Amino acid sequence: MRCLEKLFIAKYEHNIKKYYNKSIMVSDRTNQQKSRVTVIGAGIGGLTAAALLARKGYKVLVLDQAIVPGGCASTFKRKGFTFDVGATQVAGLEPGGIHHRIFSELDIELPAATPCDPACAVILPGETTPISVWRDPQKWQQERQRQFPGSERFWQLLSTLFQASWKFQGRDPVLPPRNFWDFWQLIQAVRPDTLITLPFTFMTVGDALRLCGLGDNLRLRTFLDLQLKLYSQVDTEETALLYAATALGVSQSPQGLYHLQGSMQVLSDRLVSAIERDGGKVLLRHTVESIITANGKATGTTIRNQKTGEVWTETADHIVANVTAQNLVKLLEPDAKISPQFAEISDELVADKLPTTKFPNQMNGYKYRVDKLPPSSGAFVIYLGVKESAIPANCPPHLQFLYDYDGEIGENNSLFVSVSHSGDGRAPTGMATVIASSFTDTLMWWNSDDYEGLKQKYTEGAIARLSEYFDLTAGAIVHQESATPRTFARYTARDRGAVGGIGQRVPTFGPFGFANRTPIQNLWLVGDSTHPGEGTAGVSYSALTVVRQMEAQFS
Questions:
Q1: Cα first-last separation, the chain
Q2: pTM
Q3: Count of CB atoms within 10 A of residue 262's CB?
């Protein structure tokens, strides 16, 4: 049997070399330090997993179809301006924070950053004085008591849950658990102080408001809707209370949100440097067209070089997918593309080593769950390079506007705005960047009969709204361009161009969410579809979890 296996592998390697002139190394499964790992997607989650694995001696290959690493936390340049594509804030840089932990383990320097204070300034319809989410806990308490009289019971509940949840999360639980090791990590993270959260496991923020007698407080609810939509993708009635406690509490010290010096690109660039320093490889403009499975295990990927059109199959011992749950299913679907060159290879080889027309049976339930997920939001984003004179004095780095109480949170009725400041590396001297985003229905942009007309309408609408706060008179705008879900799909490959995660509802949060372990052995999922959710800190934590799981598999 062993001889037949060796003969089969030799035949396989001969055929691959024949058609692609590429050497394929046979995996040394007796030593995990020689295990080959393919990482799909060079977003922060994928880069973090790759850097940690390369540091531990794994042979790491990272693939991404974009021209720069970082995914939704990357940047692009225009006329001397540097624009953050999506993410504009970073959490977890403080001592003990997730980025601080990971960068320390990688022995690389954290990027320079300044605390966001306030983390955000929210301006409600008909108001001019913002609700400022201050970094100092006492200052924030005074602000919310002034803005929302009689609401302190609710905020104290959130604070209590946040403290317990933060301590629990700091003990590195694995959620949701999928085997004994995962379950043991979860049990070890539980302490008596964790138990206070149990009665609130199935509650939403809306439930908590009603519990505190604040269910009819429109102004408070609207503020929470705006903040939660930003951090959890859904509003007060749908956001899991335990998630909201963390999302709303992490803005205050000793945690806090940060504005990176230079751009968000600094984060991913340093991770790439760590990967390459430790022997890993990052290939951009390379599209993974399918994940190959055999006998219930992930065995490789089919890859296309976008520049040359060359297609080949890369074998691996583990595959880490930094993609959405929707994208993961598609990479395993039976219509996966296959190179015509493989047509000459024997049927036996194709059946065992290359993409087949059979969807993995163990993924059927997984696919059913993915298909039943509520639609994810997209984003319409406008990027402006402006004269510094257009920015009001003492403008906060991040603002959130709602223009009409009766309108939805999205479609230009609400805007989340990030503003650069002098010397932060994003704009030439005397200039600034203004990035404004609004949630939008993804399907509308794909089904429109006049895409360019719709895009122009949204652009003009966003500029008109922004002009109510910024001085965007003639000549103030030096550069402008817009992005839609179709733009995000093109540059990030996310399903339908959706942004953020899958929505931190009770059925998809924490113990009820999508696990890092998939039903396919040695196929791992990281990113904002998994615990603890979106943001660079969240996806980095998911990457750390996968590395721990992989290491435990060999211990």
A1: 28
A2: 0.90
A3: 16
